[in-house]
Amino acid sequence: GLTVAGVAGKFLIGNSLESKPQKWVEVGAATELEIDKVHRITYSVRAQDAWRTAERQGVVYAFTENSETFTVFDATCTHLGCSVQWKEEDNHFACPCHAGQFSREGDVLSGPPPRPLVKLETKLEDGILKVLV
Ligand code: FES
């Protein structure tokens, strides 16, 4: 008898959607982040894809309540991508584009933003706080 074994062909189609390579960037010495104060940090990273190297810049906001756990947000507004600003006197983040407001914890307080600010992954390495951007 003749047996034909079926071979299930499975083709993995590469995900061609543009995904930016993620990088760890230094926020600074963990002990220098003043407790309960929101810090604005700008970064610039070199990102390489198959064809070129590009410089990517961004802004994050970091704060800690105990120098042990750290909260870091991407400053990009979840509405249309403007850069939010921390308003110390009002204790919230404000977006200059359409007046969106976020709490210090990143939650939407008012305005058109549909989602909270994006929280970034953090890690401590030799006392240096790093964030994945
Ligand atoms: Fe921030 Fe519209 S982009 S409220």
Write structural notes for this entry:
With 133 residues, this protein is mainly β. It has no helices and 10 strands. A 4-stranded antiparallel beta sheet has the order 5-6-7-8, with no helix packed on it. Strands 1-10-9 form a 3-stranded antiparallel beta sheet, with no helix packed on it. Strands 2-3-4 form a 3-stranded antiparallel beta sheet, with no helix packed on it. Strand 5 and strand 6 form a beta hairpin. The site of FE2/S2 (inorganic) cluster (FES) has 12 residues, from loops.
Helix/strand layout:
Elements: E1 24-29, E2 39-48, E3 53-64, E4 70-74, E5 85-87, E6 92-94, E7 101-102, E8 108-110, E9 122-125, E10 128-132
Bound molecules: FE2/S2 (inorganic) cluster.
Beta-strand content: 35-45%
- The average pLDDT is 87
The structure class reads: mainly beta
Shape: flat
Which sequence of SSEs, written as H and E, runs from N to C? EEEEEEEEEE
Taking the sheet with the most strands, its summary is:
4 strands, antiparallel
Helix count equals: 0
List keywords for this structure.
mainly beta; binds FE2/S2 (inorganic) cluster; 133 residues; four-stranded antiparallel sheet
Short précis:
The protein has 133 residues and is mostly beta strands.
